[in-house]
Amino acid sequence: MTPPAPFDAPWHGQVFALAVALNEAGHFDWPEWTELFGAELEEARSDAPLDGSDDYYTAWVSALEKMIIRKGIADGGVLKTMKSNWADAFLGTPHGQPVHPVFPEDL
Amino acid sequence: MPHDHAEPHSLLPSDPELRARALETILVEKGLVDPEALNALIDTYQNKIGPQNGARVVAKSWVDPAFKARLLSDATSAIAELGYMGRQGEHMVAVENTPEQHNIVVCTLCSCYPWPVLGIPPAWYKSDAYRSRAVREPRAVLAEFGVSLLETQKVRVWDSTAEMRYLVLPMRPEGTEGLEEDTLVDLVSRNSMIGTALAGAAA
Question: How many C-beta atoms surround the C-beta of residue B124 within 10 A?
């Protein structure tokens, strides 16, 4: 039996691991996570049925952002700034070079 | 300003991928997650934990009646005997397929799944189509997976939660009486342990 590839894209594994690591460090318990994530899936499916791959992990990202805000780890503004710094870093880095974002001052 | 592609910049990742990077940067920077630990976590679920674990549990239950009895009475402990334990496997229940009952597992809330024995769930398990229809019309779903049930079999659907995870024990295929555990393992597919296949069939 060939084991199936568990993650379709590296970022799927990345956000999966982030949630599990925070859970294990005691920042939230898993039932709290499933409740928040389940609600996020519910909201996402109102647009279109989810195929369980990219759209599933997009909902996972949204739930993780909400959890981090709920736990007071970071606010929405910092999340937004950091994301746009990553985008700027990609756009400003020549192809093939390592991409390094600028950190928000209020991080 | 025209976009100059003489020196192409790095390809811009998708929106959720950028948000994933932002999350990781912030959490690492704050010292809340360790990049090494993240890599180890991904490696574990990518390469070490998967349906091969569950297949071992099922194959052993076919050849070892005492193990099977323990599995059906306390699945968490019986599975731990084989060294499969940890995250999302704390409250395991094994449900046995019989000529009278076929079992299938779903998570209608999100995607609860027994990681220590099956790894990360496949996309179809996480899809709306499966999550909403498995409960409403399990026979139709099973037919689409190519599973034909015995006329005598009723279908029981188990809805996983954060607290309760299910492993289906498929029926041992006919004509495998002489086979050993190590060979039987190959007959136990991931889907057969979710209930959307029979043992001995592909996937």
Answer: 16
